[in-house]
Structure formats: structure tokens, C-alpha cells
Specification:
By secondary structure, this protein is mostly helical. It has two helices and two strands. A hairpin with a 5-residue loop joins strand 1 (64-66) and strand 2. The radius of gyration is 18 Å and the shape is rod-shaped.
Length: 81
């Protein structure tokens, strides 16, 4: 796992991949208590990052405006939603 990588700089794919690694390590149950706590904290931060990136994507999709034929015709600023 890349404990040194800043979570805020991770893409969704990087964060979800590392979150899966954290969950696997915790599920195995063969890590020391202190390491388990650190993994849990990192996992919580990774989960938050994934949720934030998904929300960003949802907002971008919601901004797409459709014309009378149901075809994308542009986008609407987030403030206009």
C-alpha cells in the first residue's frame, strides 16, 4: 500500500484500489493492533476520497443539458442547478 501518497491527490481508481488492499489486509486479521488502527484510519480517508470523487462525477453528469431530441447540447454551471 502507498501510505506515503497523499490521498487528496489520488484519482478515484487509485483510491478504490488502495481501499480494496486495506480491506483485504484487515479481513485477514494478521496485522498488529496498531497497524490495524492505522489501516482503518487510512481506509476511512480513502472511502471519503472515493465518495467525493463520485459526487464530483455525478455533478458533472447532472450539468449536461439535453436538447428537444434528448441529445446532449451543452452543460449548465453547477450554480444553476
Amino acid at each position: 500500500m502507498s501510505d506515503d501518497k497523499n490521498i487528496d491527490a489520488m484519482s478515484f481508481e487509485e483510491a478504490i484500489r488502495e481501499l480494496e488492499q486495506v480491506v483485504t489486509a484487515l479481513d485477514r486479521g494478521d496485522v498488529a493492533l496498531e497497524q490495524s488502527i492505522a489501516l482503518y484510519e487510512r481506509g476511512a480517508a480513502l472511502k471519503s476520497r472515493c465518495e467525493a470523487k463520485l459526487k464530483e462525477a455525478e455533478e458533472k453528469v447532472a450539468q449536461i443539458t439535453l436538447d428537444g431530441n434528448g441529445q446532449p447540447s451543452g452543460s449548465t454551471p453547477v450554480e444553476g442547478l
